[in-house]
Amino acid sequence: MSTEATERIYTINLGKVLLSPNNQRAKRAINMIREFAIKHMKSENIKIEEEISHLVWARGIRHPPRKIRVKITKDDGNVIVSKYQEEKKAEETKSEKKSDDKKKSDKSKKEEKKVEEKKEDKKEKVEKKAEEKKESKTEEKPKKEEKKAEEKAVEEKKVKSEKKTKKE
User: Fold this and answer.
1) 88-129, pLDDT tens digit by residue?
2) What CATH number matches the domain at 6-85, 3.90.1150.10, 3.90.76.10, 3.40.190.10, 3.10.440.10?
3) Per its UniProt record, what HAMAP family does this chain match (predicted)?
């Protein structure tokens, strides 16, 4: 027997889980993952990591995922099913992460500035509208008074013209 560990990456289709009753789907998904590992690694000793279980149960018992990407490792008859993580993400160096963080912080600062500018513009518009309303109210009062005075003058003229017509 070889003592060398074999490692394979699979995408397991869990679509048939939907054929089972609502309240048993996540359980059935875990069993399907176990059956898949037994079939492909030809070993009965299967261990499913907690991450996989959390991934399947994340949306509850009724709505497990349709597909799941796993890394299956076989070592001396023991088979471990773990969550697959892309190599690019695992190999990313700290310097790359730092540069990404700087870029993100620069972008977030720019976005924050834009949001603040928009808020300031809105405040200015609201203030202008408020000032315009105040001005229009103050202008309306004299206009109303002028209208009343004009109306009184028109009435007085009518009264005078009526008196003249009566005299004649």
Assistant:
1) 655 565 556 666 666 667 778 788 888 888 888 888 888 888
2) 3.10.440.10
3) Ribosomal_eL31
